[in-house]
Task: inverse folding
């Protein structure tokens, strides 16, 4: 199409390095310090997390609908990020009467360091080039529920390294989250396989090596 021979094309997957992460207790303590209201948590409390720009592409409004369907569970959703839709999403939480269950944390420096606070990682995007935060969730060993769009299936192989659902489907999101919570052994297998996949296919060293090889070939 662009006059480039297929033999001259190379696919180089994004790479991710190993960064410092807080332990679960420390991460949760730091997150709770950012929340104004007093929350009562116990060992049964489920922490759902997302790191995302608050934009249309991330499909967060469908995640909010899913949380409404899970209102009978002791579950809270913590969203890290900023964006143009913040106020609109906050209004939606009030309209759905889930404002006590959803917390917008805004910008957090080195946000991936807080990932171990979460029991499940959610990415309900309606379009996505790759989903870099899924690589970070993989290194943190968190089970993932995500939309089957864009490059996400390159990372999440449905029922092998996480659960994929069709986009814009709150019921499917709620069902997938429920499945993760009710099948902890399966969730452990999913997170372990995602961890191993990230380590073998998406390392920073591999990306740099393949990039350097491509440049050398052109010399």
Result:
């Amino acid at each position: 199409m662009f006059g480039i021979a297929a033999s001259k094309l190379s696919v180089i997957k994004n790479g991710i390095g190993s960064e410092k992460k807080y332990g679960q207790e420390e991460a949760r303590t730091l997150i709770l310090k950012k929340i104004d209201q007093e929350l009562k948590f116990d060992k049964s409390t489920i922490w759902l997390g997302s790191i995302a720009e608050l934009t249309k592409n991330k499909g967060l409004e469908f995640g909010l609908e899913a949380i409404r369907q899970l209102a009978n569970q002791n579950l809270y959703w913590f969203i890290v990020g900023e964006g143009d839709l913040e106020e609109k999403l906050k209004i939606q939480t009030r309209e759905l009467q889930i404002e006590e269950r959803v917390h917008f944390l805004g910008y957090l420096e080195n946000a991936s360091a807080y990932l171990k606070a979460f029991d499940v990682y959610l990415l309900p995007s309606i379009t996505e080039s790759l989903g870099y935060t899924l690589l970070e969730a993989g290194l943190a060993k968190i089970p993932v529920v995500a939309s089957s769009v864009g490059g996400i299936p390159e990372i999440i192989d449905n029922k092998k390294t996480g659960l994929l659902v069709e986009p814009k489907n709150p019921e499917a999101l709620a069902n997938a989250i429920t499945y993760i919570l009710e099948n902890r052994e399966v969730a452990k297998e999913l997170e372990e396989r995602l961890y191993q996949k990230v380590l073998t296919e998406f390392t920073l060293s591999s990306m740099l090596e393949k990039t350097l090889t491509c440049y050398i070939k052109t010399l």
